[in-house]
Design brief:
It is a single chain. By secondary structure, the chain is α/β, with parallel strands linked by helices. The strands form two sheets. Strands 1, 2, 8, 9, 10, 11 and 12 form a seven-stranded mixed β-sheet that branches. The chain has 14 helices and twelve strands. It is elongated. The two termini are about 15 Å apart.
């Protein structure tokens, strides 16, 4: 995969994540069914990562691709791409790519450092089991937090009568597997560090984690005000680890307001259904492979030119025949390789930064020669001319046959000129 393709994929994912945030903000922001909202955000973000890879595979199965139309009209040779490195211009894409990858490496090292810090803290802590909770007692100046099945706490910095409530809070985080969400967002953040919508979604998920834990604790408390006092007294002590489920002081006021709110949000089912109905098609549209649009373009172009090349009944041009033409003893990929080797990026087009995709049609005659080379959809005269020249330079083919008789067969071929 080229640098440009990787950057395009990254931007697709960023656009999907931005869409998820907008949908959450419009439809789900005021819903206090935290489990449902959490599931929507986490699953949508996970889908944003895999959909650009997965949807291009399944979209032909859904009948979205234009391949069927294109194939029924003519036979299309796989696209040929020719690129040219413009030495006289500043390599913005390369500089951008190097900068982006360097920052990704920084966030990767940051993630590894956080894991190492937790591992070091666990190795030095006094680990013991309390009921079905594993407690790691430590002496560092770090706020209480949980990481998977471990609850880290420094009892010396917490009032004795508050320890039990804190343990209940962290136990709620552990029981709901909140650490998986945090790990997922940390990993995605390595490549989406530039995306403000990603960080806003991450912040939202962290808030939901705290709301869920608070609700679980309060539901078992005979005195909710005691737990509120615990939140206030503990949230402002110690340093928080981003990768852990912390008693977060920046969320304290929001949590206090949420804990005192018991009213159910109206129209929850409608909002969730609307969010899904909006999210799925948008995610699909963004994730679809660019090849879909290429094939649809080919189908439209071919349909407009379907009657071209038919001069009379004796000179009929076939699309698909019993024995398709072959090139130098090989299949169409052999011809594709020939064109790839014989294309030259026009100097004038490179100097002016001209690039794009051209669609060419041609006919393999009964004697194996190439004729009727024409541009179905061009970009620039210099690029169009070079694409036609390369195809016209082709050695003779082995002609196609229909019922044992040599016939004329038409082909289409996309050629992509790109600058790096």
């Amino acid at each position: 995969m080229t640098t440009t393709s990787l950057l395009t994929l990254t931007l697709k994912i960023a656009l999907i994540i931005a869409t998820i945030w907008v949908i959450w903000f419009v439809f789900l922001r005021s819903i206090n069914r935290f489990s449902t909202v959490r599931a929507f955000i986490v699953l949508s973000v996970a889908a944003a990562i895999i959909s650009p890879w997965l949807l291009p595979i399944i979209q032909p199965l859904l009948g979205v691709s234009g391949i069927a139309n294109a194939t029924s009209l003519t036979f299309t040779i796989p696209e040929v791409s020719v690129s040219n490195v413009v030495n006289f211009s500043f390599p913005w894409i390369k500089v951008f790519a190097i900068t982006y990858i360097s920052i990704c490496a920084f966030f990767l090292l940051r993630f590894i450092y956080q894991l190492a810090k937790i591992a070091k803290l666990a190795s030095r802590a006094n680990v013991y089991k309390k009921g079905n909770l594993i407690v790691a007692e430590h002496t560092s100046n770090i706020s209480p937090f949980s990481f998977f099945n471990l609850c880290f706490i420094n009892s010396a910095t917490i009032p004795v009568d508050k320890v039990e409530e804190i343990l209940k809070h962290e136990k709620a985080h552990i029981s709901k597997w909140h650490s998986i969400d945090l790990i997922l967002f940390e990993l995605i953040g390595i490549t989406q560090w530039f995306n403000p919508f990603f960080w806003m979604l991450r912040k939202t998920v962290v808030e939901i984690h705290e709301y869920q834990a608070d609700r679980d604790v309060i539901s078992t408390q005979s005195d909710p005000h005691s737990y509120l006092d615990t939140i206030i007294s503990v949230a402002f002590n110690g340093v928080a680890l981003p990768i852990g489920n912390n008693l977060n002081k920046s969320l304290t006021l929001k949590r206090l307001a949420m804990m005192t709110t018991t009213k159910k949000t109206k129209g929850t089912a409608f909002r969730i259904a609307a969010a899904l109905l909006v999210a799925l098609p948008i995610m699909f549209a963004i994730s679809c492979n660019d090849e879909t649009s290429i094939e649809e373009d080919i189908a439209i172009i071919i349909e407009e030119n379907d009657k071209a090349g038919e001069k009379s009944s004796d000179e009929q041009v076939f699309v698909v025949v019993e024995d398709m033409p072959t090139f130098q003893g090989g299949d169409l990929n052999k011809f594709r390789e020939y064109i790839q080797q014989n294309l030259t990026y026009p100097e004038i087009a490179a100097q002016h930064g001209i690039q794009g995709r051209i669609f060419i049609s041609f006919i393999v005659e009964t004697d194996g020669s190439i004729s009727t080379v024409k541009v179905l959809k061009g970009v620039d005269p210099s690029l169009d001319k070079e694409a036609c020249r390369a195809i016209e330079s082709s050695p003779k083919w082995e002609a196609g046959k229909q019922r044992g008789k040599k016939v004329r067969v038409t082909f289409n071929m996309p050629i992509l000129f790109t600058l790096e």
